[in-house]
Amino acid sequence: MEFNGRARGEDEVEMRKGSWTVEEDLLLTNYVEAHGEGRWDSLAREAGLKRTGKSCRLRWLNYLRPDLRRGNITPEEQLLILELHSRWGNRWSKIAQHLPGRTDNEIKNYWRTRVQKHAKQLRCDVDSKRFKDVVRHLWMPRLVERIRAASGSSAVSTHQSVNDPSTCKRPEEGDVEVGEAKCAGPESSNMVRSSSESSEVQVSTASVSDRFTNCDDAWFQETTGFSACWPETLPSPGACDSWGWSMDLDQSGWEESLWSMEDIWLQQQI
DNA sequence: AATTCGTTCAACCGCCAAAGA
DNA sequence: GTCTTTGGCGGTTGAACGAAT
Question: pLDDT (tens digit, 9 = 90+) per residue, A217-229?
Answer without folding.
Answer: 443 344 434 333 3
